[in-house]
Amino acid sequence: MEHKTESKSGTPLYDVVVIGGGPAGYVAAIKAAQLGGNVALIEHDTLGGTCLNRGCIPTKAYLKNAEIIEEIHKASSRGIKLVNEAFVIDMPETVKMKNRVVKKLTGGVAALLKANKVEVLKGIGVLQNDGTVLVNEKNIVEGKKIIIAGGSKVARIPIPGIDSPLVMSSDEILSMEELPGSLVVIGGGVIGIEMALIFAAFGLVVNVIEMEERLLPFMDKSISAFIAQLLKKKGVVRIAAVAPCSSEYLTNSRASL
């Protein structure tokens, strides 16, 4: 690829400009750089996107804790006799553990970008009508090719009571430092089921509300059936074929979207 540092108008010119530093954006940026391109990546938040910061990685860190708790309960079947199986979840320490895992992986992404000579521009990138990209409403950069990998954000369902302080998104619940007595999970998809399994293992009374006839409705029926049995075994109450119409009834329970 041909390299240039400035366009005719004097603005920085790259072979490829990537908007978004999540798994799609940073992988695309690294690949373009490995193919010989002069690449810029624009990201306003921590590198790694939803997956590394508020999704896949944090939930897997919590699921590992849930797995350890389950192994404690199974210890006697392997000849390990515990004095008792009592445990206490220290949520501030749990959150710190999760943050350490996230920081290690996002730092790895930053190191990969640096090693491949991708220039990271901190800010919000907005595509302009002339094909340039405005960064932080003041700096203009140009790219011969522009990749938009803006990612996603949490949606809040339009029902009464959704603005209650007891209602948390899947982002917020991963930073919760005090466990409630019970949790209502609205949505029986992949994220909802992960949350249900995590917090049931942590000792909460958990209910899952899903408007479709079965949990994980976009997966094979055999998987849905397996998950339904697993949740039942772990004491999670499943409420299917019901659309949530209000969260105003919440008192001591937390709701997670």
List the helices and strands and how they pair.
Layout: E1 13-19, H1 23-34, E2 39-43, H2 49-54, H3 56-74, H4 91-115, E3 119-122, E4 125-127, E5 133-135, E6 139-148, E7 167-168, E8 182-186, H5 190-201, E9 205-210, H6 221-233, E10 237-240, E11 253-256
Parallel strand pairs: 1-2, 1-6, 2-3, 7-11, 8-9, 8-11, 9-10
Antiparallel strand pairs: 4-5, 5-6
Helix pairs in contact: 3-4, 3-5
What would the CATH topology of the largest domain be? FAD/NAD(P)-binding domain
Secondary-structure class: alpha/beta
Distance between the ends: 45 Å
Structural domain count: 2
Mean pLDDT: 91
Order of helices and strands: EHEHHHEEEEEEHEHEE
Largest sheet: spatial strand order: 3-2-1-6-5-4
Rg value: 23 Å
From the spread of the alpha carbons, the general shape counts as: elongated
Main β-sheet, in a few words? 6 strands, mixed
What descriptive keywords fit this protein?
FAD/NAD(P)-binding domain, 6-stranded mixed beta sheet, 5-stranded parallel beta sheet, about 35% helix, elongated
Protein described:
By secondary structure, this protein is of the alpha/beta class. The chain has two domains: about 1-150, FAD/NAD(P)-binding domain (3-Layer(bba) Sandwich); about 165-255, FAD/NAD(P)-binding domain (3-Layer(bba) Sandwich), CATH 3.50.50.60. It is about 35% helix and about 20% strand. The strands form two sheets. It has a six-stranded mixed sheet with strand order 3-2-1-6-5-4, with helices on one face. A five-stranded parallel sheet has the order 7-11-8-9-10, with helices on one face.
